[in-house]
Specification:
By secondary structure, the protein is an alpha/beta fold. The protein has helices at residues 11-24, 40-44, 57-64, 84-93, 96-101, 117-127, 152-159, 175-184, 188-192, 206-225, 228-232, and strands at residues 2-3, 29-33, 49-51, 74-78, 108-113, 134-140, 166-170. The chain is globular, with a radius of gyration of 18 Å.
């Protein structure tokens, strides 16, 4: 599940990088876009994305009744702004989080953080629902965001509620490159490969494709660092994430 209660923090962008990552790693995935009636995620990945109303019980059944029976091993849910806490409440009420706690499935939350103290309040509310979910706090620099530098006491007061959370950083993609991918309406990996949605050859800028390639490689390195493929396969990583220790915490095994 990829979400945040605050809008404009780049939830769908992160979802797109995840779908490209799973496809590259040959991990079968399906996705649900909760931005009804016309989802942004579906525009880029029409073959694997369904648009759903997460508040609508039949749509909840489409997603959660089929988690273990679907051909795809990953079910990705892009939760629109304002629906993260309500969605977690739904998952608690239908017993989904309890099922994850019992090991019947693996529940991963990518919480896309905004730069203000409001994101800390979101963390506090989210923590109440998490159970044994793998919890990733994602700093997305999509809008040249300068993240609020939380003092140690404030930081500890919030993050101790999710002691096994892991921080992931999504760097900024240059505006012109982001705009060209949006105009092309293709996955990032397809843009890099200079192809159209149909698979036919395209004529995208070599320079902009290079920027997108470098950006996506950096993000995928973050997913590798936290052992994402092991997590979705139901395997615990035997070693901590590589790279410098994040200020958030140790890793329980990130998004």
């Amino acid at each position: 599940m990829i979400g945040a209660d605050k809008g404009g923090v780049g939830k769908t962008t992160v979802s797109r990088t995840l779908l490209d990552y799973f496809d590259d790693r040959q991990v079968s995935a399906r996705a649900f876009d909760t931005e009804v009636p016309k989802g942004t995620l579906k525009r880029f990945h029409p073959d694997v994305v369904d648009v759903v109303d997460i508040n609508h019980v039949p749509d909840q059944m489409r997603i959660f009744d089929t988690v273990n029976s679907a051909a795809a091993s990953v079910s990705l849910i892009d939760v629109r702004a304002g629906l993260m806490s309500p969605t977690l409440r739904i998952l608690r009420n239908i017993g989904f989080i309890e099922a994850a706690k019992k090991g019947h499935l693996t529940f991963v939350v990518f919480h896309i953080l905004g730069p203000s103290i409001a994101s800390l309040d979101e963390i506090a509310e989210t923590a109440a629902y998490l159970g044994d979910a793998k919890y990733f706090m994602v700093k997305n620099f999509i809008n040249n965001t300068h993240f609020f530098e939380w003092d140690d006491a404030t930081h500890a007061a919030y993050f101790r509620r999710v002691p096994d959370a892991v921080e992931i950083t999504i760097p900024k993609l240059p505006e012109m490159a982001a705009e060209q991918v949006d105009l092309a309406s293709v996955p990032f990996a397809t843009f890099i490969a200079n192809k159209k949605q149909s698979g036919d050859p395209a004529s995208y800028s070599f320079v902009l494709r290079g920027y997108v390639r470098h950006w996506l490689d950096t993000i995928w390195a973050e997913y590798e660092r936290v052992g994402l493929t092991d997590i979705v396969a139901g395997r615990e990583s035997l070693k901590p994430p590589a790279g410098r220790p994040r200020p958030v915490i140790r890793v329980a095994e990130t998004t």
